[in-house]
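Ticket reopened. Same input as before:
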Amino acid sequence: KQEVTQIPAALSVPEGENLVLNCSFTDSAIYNLQWFRQDPGKGLTSLLLIQSSQREQTSGRLNASLDKSSGRSTLYIAASQPGDSATYLCAVGETSGSRLTFGEGTQLTVNP
Amino acid sequence: EAQVTQNPRYLITVTGKKLTVTCSQNMNHEYMSWYRQDPGLGLRQIYYSMNVEVTDKGDVPEGYKVSRKEKRNFPLILESPSPNQTSLYFCASSSLAGRGTDTQYFGPGTRLTVL
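Engineering reply: fixed in the latest deploy. New output:
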């Protein structure tokens, strides 16, 4: 059974800092991997989707990488802003393409 | 506006009283899914549907039912709710890319309390 782990569980940084969030998974036979953002009391918003054949995806200040062989993905946030404060979750899509397994998330606080 | 809607957003009920949480999407997505989110356990998949009349169990299906009679709707039914089903519930949808799911779009969530 796929297990997804996100470390650290919480992270606090000063505004402007570049940071990396980590996601690891136990079964490297995946279909895709997604990074989401969740604000308190709100639903999830998809940030980036990486297909299993891809190594990375970029959107604005965000860059997500995928290393299937080592079972790892990272989300890089450049020049962090207070508005980036949220919980970030990664989700791994299994090879059947029909089911997702989520990590518990990293709660990010960016201090002004 | 492309969106996934859920109703109700908040619900307090009592043990054993049947309830339905509705989910609707306006993006013509084939795939729809229900999750529950609990502290310390993260998001867990309850049921999913790859298309109309096609549903399958996720990781925690016990105590829940679903149906997919129309493409846009995917209601979650709790026939006899119990306190351990108190949770935050999310519906999600996506198109299918190849044999699997694409970017997931989530609803705003339904906070359910079962007394």
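The longest strand of chain A covers residues 30-38. The interface with chain B takes residues 31-32, 34, 36, 41-46, 49, 89, 91, 93, 96-105 of chain A (CB under 8 Å). Please confirm and we'll close it.
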